[in-house]
């Protein structure tokens, strides 16, 4: 039996010194456990999402210096870890110094190179280059190394023969880096290559961002792989939060054991466990977690969001939060979410009503604050907004054609209200409160730019901006369950969603947002989340075929919502024009968000500011349908 | 003599239909010229910077449909063009349908495949993956194709034998796509391969974004290549503007001829020429532009900025602009820049003084507007700001510890002023004026976050945000030259730069920004622009060695600015902390900018929000120097 400790390090991106401190602690722990092998995740010194910090040579030198510290700490313990490896003599395709996303093994203060390898470490073979991933931007792959040496990848990629302390034995182990085990779309299959070289255990070092339902896919995929190859696998992931600017990702730290039968035989709890002791029986291939009787529950939407919000605040060294609460669902869910990870006095809830805000929602905002036991203020902004409107409406402008007066329309006055709330009140209050203020946007709004720049789209963090409206409600219910009581009043779930910026949005008259969320959530989702993204051409074809509901996954009947084809088309074009038009400009200036879906706005979905486009096939279909 | 027309298409990204219309016009023009070959640039139907639009299958089908239209239009004319090629049977590494960045040739309504090729087109071999470039995210390279077929790139990459209408001859031509000719850092050298296959002319189809001095590098590089290989080259670039969200790039459309002696023998004028007639003498290898007696002048900073601003406005279908003018240099340069591309009545200049704004700057703002003959309004904001401060200062908050009062500091009041200007006044006025409002930030400010989110960092476009402060002055002088008179008053160049947000920033007392621009421009530049970016460790080492001035390129003596090492270190850490700390958060929400430098913020420099880091080597050096 081999004792393997995995350290699901809580990585601080870019902070090598701090990550080393935690590595050192885990080395001490592993020794105490008399572990033979200690495994750290991919890029455990630098962090994985650090942007273009890779082109600072001083940072690279620091990565190398601390790499040596890990080697020096390997007395009587085999340590495996991920770090950048640098070949100062060679360059990458960008002309900068050559870097590899590498895995190292050390024992008794010496590196253990892979068997028959030209390099003292192994190199990530498959470099992901989709969604938020940019590995080939920075790193040279094992496949490129093989090609450069006119060698096959089969002869280049090698397993490690790991010394087993307290014995005279070794273990032949295939060490993989994250994507190396997600090989279904690549021409190269690293696990197959390593299996053919007698690997008796795969260890995958990962920095795999959490998104909803991704672990289910991983379990399916890795189970199938180990079953097929008859080699068990130990998967080790990071914890913590890292970001690429626009998108903040959490890492679940769910290390896992897969046996040769394809069974998930052990898994660490999400977000919480710094380290775990796995037991491996080389003779049977059995791999499990010590003392684990049942698998932990998968993260819920609520637990993932809580971890995300807490991690983000920690990452920016802030623990005080100002939240504008309108009495609607989005701000209520944000308030409850932050409250679930912060002491009550660290929140300041602010209601900023005008005459358009109903007594209903004002009352609900106050009720929410009382339920959450948070400081609460109401600052009516009607007079300020009125003063601004009076000052600007009919403003005379002298041009070469004579004097004209600039009119303010009701729509412009709505935006003035929204900006007054955020840029005047919340921004100032957050500074006074020594905290941040939140952006409470959801993904539905962000998709179509239903929000005001420098208004409700402002804030330091948009925790819920990757959640569709239906997920906002789901999170609200999960939060009430978490609190064990109705902190978000039931009426907030049932009231008509509304911006309450004009008489046309009066909730008490059942007026509100121009969206039928039960349908539009799914329509908009089809624009962004499927691997092959839908365009109006696809949607209109499905509509014509009668398959629209199934294709987009809505449970309401689109055909009864839009009694005529022309109503369907007008609605489709309205939202497509916004989605691919002005909403892009708004998203460029939107706050960072907590990425949780299979495709989030920001660095995951990369967007250019362009004009909406309709294909010829769409225009033809439209003409056929409308009979013009 | 072979007549070749190049079309420097003004590409509208994502608008295939519109690009086709322009292609059709150029085909007509080429026929009128009795040209034998017509060359379009890389990705001439789709545009090059279109973000993740590549994962919309409907868009790909549209690219294919219009590709056929070009083929069908090739009667008696050999047409060469760049477009995406799709292999619907295969997938890329992301599992999506396989796409190539390809070059096509057609004659008499049929594709002309490369000689001895498995494919009816050629495929880009070198896919750039640095700065703003993401080619491998979308496209499979010729090198990957070769590897997949277990063939060498040498046997895979093939030239075209192009029919020459009006003759029975053909021309063996190596067609390259952009980066294929920028091969200095790659292990593969496409031009050498094609030269060995008897190519008598290289034609490079490009979508190469303009940045300052990049063309000089291109001339050096391509001259050296053609001289070495003894094959002349025709280089064809796009015109127009494309963006990736945060960064807007202009394309200069400077097509060029390089003879075998390495001479730049012909070049089209920047930004303006839709098409040009080149003459190629295959017997001598001579290549030139018809009727060109001298090379055009290179773009100036001013002409590039004017093209950028005009193109951006056109791209968002806006032609009216509101500019906040303070009387300082940044807003003055922006006002003159926009005025140089817009009719006078399409600008609205707005001064929004408080008691901190001097008569000097208020007068200069008014003078500027008079010089530019633009509509101008002054809207004092002091009372509004005072009302906000009165409402928020000492705001009582009831927490579980009792009641506390939230204080407003003078610094918070500065930010309130800045937000009041932009989010309250300019945002509303721009809507009333049916236009946008500008962000007048410069790169120095953006580097350290010296600006207020939702305040002076707001706006639809930050035209000058990729210019260091010294370049802002340069652009100002170039604009006055362009106007042929001092539209920007001389005093605006000489006044102390200041935000005028407090008594500590009184320009008439010589008080202002906390930066010594002559030094800090270059310090901050070293953090971002060199290919190997500098860190405090490098800067402190240079300081100690006495080589700091040369390394960062400042003309002022850093050693006399900072009389003691500890003063130097305090200054260095102050700006590094901002640059790599809070300024990143501000940049994430900053407006799109006009990218013009060798490294711009946004999608070119990808940044994660992290805490500032100092390497061990820095800390050690600091300790040595400070003797502690």
Fill in the keyword field for this structure.
homodimer; 628 residues; alpha/beta; Nitrilase/N-carbamoyl-D-aminoacid amidohydrolase; Rossmann fold; 3 domains; 8-stranded mixed β-sheet; 6-stranded mixed β-sheet; globular; Glutamine-dependent NAD(+) synthetase (chains A, B); Rossmann-like_a/b/a_fold (chains A, B); Gln-dep_NAD_synthase (chains A, B); C-N_Hydrolase (chains A, B); NAD (chains A, B)
Summarize the structure.
Chain A is α/β, with parallel strands linked by helices and 628 residues long. The first copy, chain A, contains 22 helices and 23 strands.
Account of the protein in words:
- Chains A, B: One of its GO terms (biological process) is NAD+ biosynthetic process.
- Chains A, B: Belongs to the NAD synthetase family. In the C-terminal section; belongs to the NAD synthetase family.
- Chains A, B: Pathway: Cofactor biosynthesis; NAD(+) biosynthesis; NAD(+) from deamido-NAD(+) (L-Gln route): step 1/1.
- Chains A, B: InterPro entries: C-N_Hydrolase, C-N_Hydrolase_sf, Gln-dep_NAD_synthase, NAD/GMP_synthase, NAD_synthase, Rossmann-like_a/b/a_fold.
- Chains A, B: Residues 2-301 form the CN hydrolase domain.
- The structure is a homodimer of 628-residue chains.
- By secondary structure, the first copy, chain A, is α/β, with parallel strands linked by helices.
- Chain A folds into three domains: 2-297, Nitrilase/N-carbamoyl-D-aminoacid amidohydrolase (4-Layer Sandwich), CATH 3.60.110; 300-381 and 411-514, HUPs (Rossmann fold); 516-591 and 611-628, no CATH class.
- Helices cover 37% and strands 18% of the residues of chain A.
- Chain A contains 22 helices and 23 strands.
- In chain A, strands 1, 2, 3, 4, 5, 6, 15 and 16 form an eight-stranded mixed beta sheet that branches.
- In chain A, strand 8 (170-177), helix 6 and strand 9 form a beta-alpha-beta unit.
- In chain A, helix 9 runs parallel beside helix 10 (359-372) and helix 9 (329-339) crosses helix 14.
- The longest helix of chain A is centred in the C-terminal third of the chain and has 23 residues, at 410-432.
- The first copy, chain A, is globular.
- Chain A starts with a strand and ends with a helix.
- The mean pLDDT of chain A is 97.
